[in-house]
């Protein structure tokens, strides 16, 4: 089993009409044994941007603190919030610095830029960025998520429709993955606010 799959997990981000959503499951496992149902995989970087970190739990926690430090330092130096695209490049360069002994995490970035245009991207272990206009997925449920998102996603979804679409995609995908699930959290980012909702899923 790959170290990326050791703790399990699934993350998906979707773009809508002047809004963006990111969702993750809550399970922390040791291979097939569930340890916790309340493990945080999505971290808020700024008021309008989030970082999702699926992968090895220890590296998830290490990277979340490292990215928090770097975004705070950026804000102090530049006297402004970091833009999602800049955040993506910062995350990418951080991973690439450790390309010879890499972190076992494949980050997903989601946010709204200064013009409230949605921005989403994902990357691999060494920071190769995959920009997207529709959705990005990461984690052990990636194959199922791709199928569900291809079926359900439509352009220019309003916030409530986007929430419904991303929720159904995640819930149906983790039902087919024994390493993910056990609850989910969804963040919908709009120009006015961030809507956070917790979902109940199958507990078996």
From TrEMBL:
Taxonomy, superkingdom: Eukaryota
Compartment(s): Cytoplasm; Nucleus
Gene Ontology biological process terms in this record: proteasome-mediated ubiquitin-dependent protein catabolic process
Protein name: Proteasome subunit beta
GO CC aspect terms: cytoplasm; nucleus; proteasome core complex, beta-subunit complex
The keyword Hydrolase appears for this protein: no
Keyword Nucleus: yes
Functional summary from the UniProt entry: Component of the proteasome, a multicatalytic proteinase complex which is characterized by its ability to cleave peptides with Arg, Phe, Tyr, Leu, and Glu adjacent to the leaving group at neutral or slightly basic pH. The proteasome has an ATP-dependent proteolytic activity.
Assembly with partners or alone: Component of the proteasome complex.
Pfam families the record matches: Proteasome (PF00227)
Origin organism lineage: Eukaryota, Fungi, Fungi incertae sedis, Mucoromycota, Glomeromycotina
């Amino acid at each position: 089993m790959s170290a990326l799959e050791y703790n399990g997990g699934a993350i998906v981000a979707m773009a809508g009409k002047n809004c963006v959503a990111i969702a993750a499951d809550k399970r922390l496992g040791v291979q097939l044994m569930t340890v916790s149902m309340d493990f945080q995989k999505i971290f808020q970087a700024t008021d309008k941007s989030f970082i999702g970190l699926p992968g090895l739990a220890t590296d998830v926690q290490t990277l979340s603190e490292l990215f928090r430090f770097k975004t705070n330092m950026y804000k102090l130096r530049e006297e402004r919030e970091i833009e999602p695209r800049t955040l993506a490049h910062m995350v990418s360069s951080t991973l690439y610095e450790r390309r010879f002994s890499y972190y076992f995490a494949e980050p997903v970035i989601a946010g709204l830029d200064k013009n409230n245009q949605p921005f989403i991207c994902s990357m691999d272990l060494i920071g190769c960025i995959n920009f997207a206009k529709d959705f990005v997925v990461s984690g052990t449920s990636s194959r199922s998520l791709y199928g569900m998102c291809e079926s359900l996603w439509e352009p220019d979804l309003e916030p409530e429709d986007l929430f419904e679409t991303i929720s159904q995609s995640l819930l149906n995908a983790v039902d087919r993955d024994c390493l993910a699930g056990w609850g989910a959290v969804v963040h919908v980012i709009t120009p006015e606010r961030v809507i956070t909702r917790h979902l109940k899923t199958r507990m078996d």
